[in-house]
Input
Amino acid sequence: MTDPSATAAARRPGEQALTALGLAAPDPDPADASPHSFPGGGRWRTEIPSCEGPEALAVVLKESSRLDVPVHRISQGSGVWMLTDAEITEMVEATAERDIELCLFTGPRGTWDIGGSTRTDSRGAGLRARGHDAVAGCVEDAVRASELGVKCLLVADEGVLWTLHRARAAGLLPADTTLKLSALVGPVNPASYAVYERLGADSINVPSDLTLDHLTEIRRVSAAPMDMYIEAPDDLGGYVRMYEVAELIRRGAPLYLKFGLSKAPGIYPYGHHLRELTLATAKERVRRGRLALDLLARHGADGDMAPLGTRLPGALNRFEISS
Output
């Protein structure tokens, strides 16, 4: 297991100047640090989200090479059902060439179906799958994507998550399929985080407004990999937490650093009418990643990245599946 004190020893933003002015912050408490890391080593991985098709993927791959941004995972938000078989196959082949995990969203969701509750002030059931048919659509997407070579599925419903976990255990999905929980239903306390892990999540996206103490609380009950937007889209708050990246890793490891983009129009569900915006924002997300990684490097906290090509979460706690 990696020593979390390595990140703790990194220089914090403004530390030398503030110390000289008598404004030094207290030393980090070693008890706050996560004791966990990814299997195979490393405490953080990277993810480029909202990559909505082969064209956007090509932009991300080209820009990540140009700016030297290491990428462990690329995810899409519109859904498997918004892509043709040929488009999915092209994305699978392109990411496989770079040994990058490709994650596609599953099925219908409440914000797009005929239910009116999501359009009220309370947002009703949110992204969840409404009724048997919506769950069936998510399962159909999961099976189709898996047959085309996709190894990571994005989920926004507890029932769908448990169903896909059971399908994986029963051999209906490949055993090495990973299930990623969407930021749109992410847990905000350690008890709910642990429940999602037990329901089958291999990677759990938490809202970007969680405090550092919240991350420490979660890490006291679960070692499941955590996903977090370092810069969140506007519909998730628009938070920009680049200066906290080193501390987010120290507290939240194993952590996926997600490079989103605030002050940008939404692109879900994607179609060619949104092409120019989607390609432009895909390119900028990679640049945002470079900015965050540069900050880590300047503060001496850019070590301990998980090896490129790694994707599995390690041993996790699950609810028992009854026969």
